[in-house]
Amino acid sequence: MPLGNTACPTSPFLSWHVSDGVWENVIWWSHQKSCVAIGECGLDRLHPNWDAQLRIFQAHWDLSEEIKKPIVLPYRDWE
Known about the structure:
- With about 80 residues, this protein is α/β, with parallel strands linked by helices.
- The protein contains two helices and three strands.
- It has helices spanning about 20-30, 50-65, and strands spanning about 5-10, 35-40, 70.
- The chain has a three-stranded parallel β-sheet, with helices on one face.
- It is globular, with a radius of gyration of 13 Å.
- The mean pLDDT is about 75.
């Protein structure tokens, strides 16, 4: 069954659980025709591991640039 248009996300809350195998799946899915964007991904101030978030966010950003697909960024009021 063909999929509709999708995006390839990794939640900031799961960033410390992103193993090489998980990231390989994100890369694979991101190259599929049904994938139209990378994300939703971003930084969450409530997340305890800022370094892990930054690492995964940078990887999403780099992947987005590499495959020329937009990146989906969430917005939450930080006030």
